[in-house]
Amino acid sequence: MVEQVAEKTVEKVGAGDLRMEDVLTMDASKAMNLFRNRFIRYKKMVEEMGDAAAYEKMLEKYPEQQKALMGAFIDNATIAEGFKKSIPLLRPMGFITEIFDISQNGTDAALEIQRVCPALSISKEYGFEYPCRILCEMEQEAARRAFPGMKATLLSRQADGDCVCVFKYERPAQSAAELAKNTPSMFTQILELVGLIPTLLGAGIKMLKMRFSK
Asked: How far is Cα 58 from Cα 113, in angstroms, rounded to an integer?
């Protein structure tokens, strides 16, 4: 029964799983449920249609979601600047993240260091030796499809015994004029979601409480 409910939940939110309102209200418990739902759904789909077809099916709506979610942070900023802004949203999910700007020679590039992989401890429960293909590799493939010219590479994996997970993202550098031109899209894609404003306000209040409680 639990697995059936999880499958329906994942189908409802789409193959990419995450919506902006999900991200803004995410915590460690919800993140673990999200990972479990992904494993359950992927395992079921592999049994029905094989690994390659299941992978593509899971990716079906993911680029569109990645375009909206990631684009909100990097459309009007460098990759490093945008990713740094997303850290407060990742922290409640259990991720400990560091971002390094490695841009040079006309390339906008960043390294994303993840010190904790929350999904690693539960992937084996669902028959997966590594969570990487179903989570991180799929996220990077969605980014490549969502942003033409984007390169995304997984350089280091805790699942392989490495001490951290390291992701590299790069794309052609944008000029100051191009960045300024993209500025409105950061907000329009978010604010067009009807009913999201109360969630944004709630998230802001939550972040302020976390800041002053330290």
From this structure: 25
